[in-house]
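Sample entry was shown:
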Amino acid sequence: MGDIAYDFGHIQELAQQIQTVSSQIEGLLGEIDTEVQKLASGWEGEAQATWHTLQTKWGHEADDLKGTLHDLSAKVGQAGEAMQHAEAAIGNKFQP
């Protein structure tokens, strides 16, 4: 039977890395939006309407991605804490 071992520090580090990447993506999306807004400011008519529709859809999808990454980071952190508590509880059962 195989052993089960967890590196709790690494699990928490992974949760933080996911949050960091999420923040980096958010920053990059903001930079892209700023540059595209500069271009779009001169658009009129159908081009402007089409861009607005696509930009709104893209904004919703970016928000969904940010939410998913935030949730993933939180769940990884919570799972690490739960495993650490479970291991401590099992260890306490062996105490006299």
Notes: The CA atoms of residues 29 and 62 lie 8 Å apart. The domain at 3-92 is CATH 1.10.287.1060 (Helix Hairpins). The radius of gyration is 22 Å. The chain has a mean pLDDT of 90.
